[in-house]
Write a structure and sequence with these properties.
The structure is a single chain. The protein is α/β, with parallel strands linked by helices. The protein is elongated. The longest helix has 14 residues. It folds into two domains: about 100 residues, Leucine Dehydrogenase, chain A, domain 1 (Rossmann fold), CATH 3.40.50.10860; about 110 residues, 3-Layer(aba) Sandwich (Rossmann fold), CATH 3.40.50.720. The model has no long low-confidence stretch (mean pLDDT about 95). Helix 1 links the parallel strand 1 and strand 2. Helix 4 packs across helix 5 and helix 4 packs across helix 8. The strands form three sheets. It has a five-stranded mixed beta sheet with strand order 2-1-3-4-5, with helices on both faces. It has a five-stranded parallel beta sheet with strand order 7-6-9-11-12, with helices on both faces. A two-stranded parallel sheet has the order 8-10.
């Protein structure tokens, strides 16, 4: 049950190196009541607590999960990737609002004929599932399969291609795109990419804030808080 407006919500974010998160500011705009936002920053995956213990410790009304733990609990939940969790009557329920947000944007905003996916992590897996569902052709490049891809030359692709970066903030793209291409970075406020693409007027750069904002809206609905 949603808390009354005079009660303080407890929301949490689980991940590694997440002090830069913009989620509290977004929830501040979306919620009309006070909340505590618990940043659960864990660098060692060997010390990763159970979801049940996290909810008990912080008395959470909703938990978000980000990199690198989006696939850490999937065996128990039976999903390929999760980023949004709630506890109902002592039982854990989870979904991927990442999936829903990216699918909605691909259907309504980008509508690409072909996608290039950079990376092979949790977000890349979701993107491939979305492409298969929407019948969009895609190419995938990752450091595991293709070596260093930071200077990847994609200029031979058809004009207006959509390149989606699902790599972590440790990755900086300095390659080439075809004319009028869009580089959709799932990271947000990432200065190296902002500076690089500002010097290349033939390409359009979109960062990940739109995904994050839509994901937060969908998370509140999943948590029964909106």
């Amino acid at each position: 049950m949603p808390k009354k407006n005079n009660e303080i919500l407890n929301l949490g974010l689980l991940g590694a190196n997440i002090q830069h998160t913009q989620s509290p500011a977004i929830y501040q705009k979306l919620l009309d009541q006070k909340f505590h936002y618990h940043i659960i920053d864990i660098s060692n995956s060997d010390k990763l607590p159970s979801l049940e213990s996290i909810f008990e410790k912080y008395q959470l009304d909703g938990l978000s999960i980000t990199s690198p733990f989006k696939r850490s609990f999937t065996k128990a939940i039976n999903q390929s990737s999760i980023n949004c969790v709630k506890q109902v009557d002592g039982k854990i329920q989870a979904t991927s609002t990442d999936y829903s947000a990216m699918k909605k944007l691909l259907e309504t905003k980008y509508r690409p004929r072909q996608i290039v996916i950079l990376g092979d992590g949790a977000m890349a897996i979701l993107l491939k599932q979305i492409c298969q569902e929407l019948k969009i052709s895609y190419l995938e490049f990752s450091r595991k399969q293709n070596g260093e891809i930071n200077k990847l030359d994609l200029s031979a692709l058809e004009a207006g291609s959509l390149v989606i970066n699902s790599c972590s903030r440790a990755f900086v793209f300095e390659g080439k795109l075809s004319k009028s291409s869009i580089f959709w970075d799932l990271n947000y406020h990432f200065l190296p990419h902002i500076e690089y693409f500002s010097k290349n007027p033939n390409w359009t750069y979109h960062d990940g804030m739109e995904v994050l904002e839509l994901q937060c809206q969908l998370s509140l609905k999943f948590w029964d808080l909106s």
